[in-house]
Every structure is written in structure tokens, then in C-alpha cells.
Design brief:
This protein is an alpha/beta fold. Helices cover about 50% and strands about 10% of the residues. The chain has helices at about 5-15, 30-65, 65-75, 95-110, 115-140, 165-175, 190-195, 205-210, 220-225, 230-235, 250-255, and strands at about 1-5, 30, 145-150, 180-185, 200, 215, 240-245, 260.
């Protein structure tokens, strides 16, 4: 997308970007205003999709349905697609929160409603609060004085980005009520420990689980997908596993002796 106010600017941008693509890539040439809205609209649409599947997960929990089967079936519809239909603790990062708010601001400044985007932002905020309650309920209604192992802090795997990550809302809410947090993340430990010196940061996921009254999987890093569950269970004080990314299968976890809690799972 090239937003420009002159033909010369368009030509220069094409000359810069054309050599970067081995396969011919379409350019959309438009005004500066439209180019800005394209960026915001794309990310707002994806944010809406995430908030939608999170609401579906919440409904699934209420009626004893499975959001994974729901998302798979809905995603097979070519008009919808399966990408970004993954329920969890809410979106974060540097783009979705910023761009949804920017689009809302533009709409407000121009006296235009942006109710869908506003709803997506509200749902995302509520989802984080819902995850805190989910963790609390799984621990018998109170986290005070209990140790919680935390697996992952970044807003998604394969990045060290903590900007607007759900962990930044969820973990302080637990600590505020007296939980002791033992945290592991493959790459974000240095920045996270500077932000939260009151948390205990450990070198591997097994250390995070040691003596824990519950373990919360917050980021779906690949190394968390292949945990030695037998070792995890033996290390924990109580085998409560709260999987906010639906990495594991509920029945397998239950068969392994865990009290397993997912998002929108049977």
C-alpha cells in the first residue's frame, strides 16, 4: 500500500520496494488518508475476529460446548477462514491495541460511530479480567498465599515483545491478591524481571512448576507444547493446570491426573 500526494512519491516508493520481491506483488496506490485507514482497518478486523472467538469460547463454557470444534467448523467456510480463530486471554502486542484505538479516535473526531471496533476493545479488556477469575476459581476461589507457576509472558511466541501482553494485566491482578508468582519465558525474562521485580523468575518451565498450587500457560511457545507432564505433575503441590492457549487436550490432561482448565473446552 502506497499512500502519497504526488506521482513522484509513488514512483520512488515502487523503486525502493520492487527489488525486495522475487514474486510480482501488487501495489495499491492511494491517498495518504486511505493508506492510513487501510492499516488500521486490517488490524481492527483481526482484533474483532479474536474478540468474536473469545466471546464464542465464553458461550461454549456456559452451554457445555467445545470452542475448538466450533472454530474448526466455522473456519472451514471459505468466506471466514480459520486464521485468528484461536480463543485465549485476549490480543496484545504493538499493533492491535494501538490501531483499534487510533481508528476509534479518528471515528470520534469525525462524529462517526465505530461500534464494532469499540466492542472488540471492550471484549478484549473483559477477557483478561475473565482469565483472572478463571485462574482464581480453579484454585478454589482464592490465590492468596499460593504459588502459581507462569509459563510465558510475551503476547505471542517467537518474540520478546511484552507490549500490551495479557500477562501485564493478569499477573499483577493475581499478585495483588497475594499470589506468589514463579515465572518463565524463553526470551523475555530480562525485560519482564525489570518490570516486575517482585515476581520470581526461573530458568526453565519445570522450575516454574516446582511446589506450585497451579500452573498457568499464558504463551504458546513450542517448548511448552512438549512438556514432560509426568515430571510437571510430580513437581507441583497441586496438579491444577490452567491452559489459556488450549495447547493441551482436556481428556489427556485429566487422564494424566491434572485438574485441567482451558478456554471454551469441554
Amino acid at each position: 500500500v502506497i499512500g502519497a500526494d504526488s506521482e513522484r512519491a509513488v514512483k520512488v516508493m515502487k523503486e525502493v520496494y520492487n527489488p525486495l520481491y522475487l514474486i510480482s506483488t501488487p501495489f495499491v496506490e492511494t491517498t495518504l488518508e486511505t493508506a492510513e485507514l487501510i492499516k488500521y482497518a486490517a488490524n481492527a478486523f483481526l482484533a474483532i475476529k479474536i474478540s468474536f472467538i473469545n466471546e464464542m469460547a465464553n458461550i461454549c463454557e456456559a452451554v457445555n460446548a467445545d470452542v475448538i470444534a466450533l472454530a474448526k467448523a466455522v473456519g472451514l467456510d471459505g468466506r471466514i477462514g480459520g486464521k485468528f480463530l484461536h480463543p485465549g486471554p485476549g490480543y496484545g502486542g504493538s499493533c492491535f491495541p494501538k490501531d483499534t484505538l487510533a481508528l476509534m479516535r479518528i471515528a470520534q473526531e469525525n462524529s462517526v460511530a465505530a461500534r464494532l471496533v469499540e466492542a472488540a476493545v471492550e471484549v478484549n479488556s473483559a477477557q483478561k479480567a475473565r482469565m483472572v477469575k478463571k485462574i482464581r476459581d480453579a484454585m478454589g476461589g482464592s490465590e492468596a498465599g499460593k504459588t502459581i507457576g507462569i509459563l510465558g509472558m510475551t503476547f505471542k511466541p517467537e518474540t520478546d515483545d511484552l507490549r500490551d501482553a495479557p500477562s501485564l494485566t493478569i499477573l499483577p491482578a493475581l499478585a495483588e491478591k497475594g499470589a506468589r508468582l514463579r515465572v518463565h519465558d524463553p526470551v523475555a525474562m530480562e525485560e519482564a524481571s525489570a518490570m516486575f521485580p517482585e515476581f520470581e523468575f526461573v530458568k526453565n518451565p519445570y522450575a516454574a512448576c516446582e511446589g506450585a498450587d497451579a500452573v498457568v500457560l499464558l504463551t504458546e511457545w513450542n517448548q511448552y507444547r512438549a512438556l514432560d507432564l509426568k515430571s510437571i505433575k510430580s513437581l507441583m503441590k497441586k496438579p491444577v493446570f490452567i491452559d489459556l492457549r488450549n495447547v493441551y487436550e482436556p481428556r489427556k490432561m485429566q487422564a494424566a491426573g491434572f485438574h485441567y482448565v482451558g478456554v471454551g473446552r469441554l
